[in-house]
Design a protein that fits this description.
Length: about 240
């Protein structure tokens, strides 16, 4: 194969990698919208918006399948090595995390429908909004670190998950107190516990994305145990 052919092949390969990264970025944007609107639906008890979130989840599933098919096709045709292979593997991993984030947003939508027009304590709503801001900041930084191949930002996301865990713990026990003070709140509070847990899990998936970015750049997974501060238990909550 002559130099001209090699250069042509490399250009096609680079275009494939750029297309894969674009699809991941598009999926990230859709997932971000799902999270934001899920919390808006919860805050306003907007049943119509909750149904829209649930229906839109299929779009994320389709895009994740396209990314997977594209990545497998590139590997089969190009047989990439080193950083090129890491780029593809990480794109597949990230798309899987984004699909799971979409599922978690959909689950919040389902909880909104179950809660209906029940009145929620404003302190809890404010706490959820604060937690959402932290989660979205982590999520956006993780996506930006992927787009810019920024290992410093990726590590910041990994270390920042502790703050989300701390707020998760505080909200979790606030809901437990509400359940203990008024047994009539148990059904609604149980739905809120699931919403809080879903948000915390979205933060975990943002950390997964950041760790995938670290792998792309460094060529090795992070060896140290991930910082974790979540000490809540659903078994405890449901038997409170």
């Amino acid at each position: 194969m002559n130099i001209v052919m090699l250069a042509h092949t490399r250009r096609i390969f680079d275009a494939d990698l750029q297309d894969l990264a674009r699809m991941v970025a598009e999926m990230g944007g859709l997932a971000e919208r799902q999270i934001t609107q899920a919390i808006e639906a919860l805050r306003k008890r907007n049943i119509r918006l909750a149904h829209q979130i649930i229906d839109r989840d299929a779009t994320l599933d389709v895009l994740q399948a396209k990314i997977e098919a594209k990545g497998i096709d590139i590997i089969a045709q190009r047989q990439p090595l080193a950083i090129d292979l890491r780029e593809i593997i990480s794109a597949l991993r990230i798309s899987n995390d984004l699909e799971r984030i979409g599922d978690l947003a959909k689950n919040i939508g389902k909880r909104v429908i179950a809660i209906g027009d029940e009145i929620l304590p404003m302190s809890l709503i404010h706490g959820l909004e604060h937690m959402t801001r932290l989660v979205m900041e982590q999520f956006k930084t993780a996506l930006d670190s992927f787009a810019a191949r920024d290992i410093t930002a990726a590590l910041a996301v990994r270390n920042g998950d502790l703050q989300i865990d701390a707020l998760n713990n505080a909200l979790f026990y606030e809901v437990l107190l509400d359940m203990g003070e008024d047994p009539h709140n148990i059904a609604t509070c149980t739905q809120m516990l699931f919403c809080i847990k879903n948000l915390e899990r979205i933060g975990d998936h943002a950390t997964n994305i950041a760790e995938a970015v670290h792998y792309i750049i460094s060529g090795r997974p992070l060896s140290s145990e991930r910082p974790k501060g979540n000490n809540t238990s659903f078994a405890t909550a449901l038997h409170a």
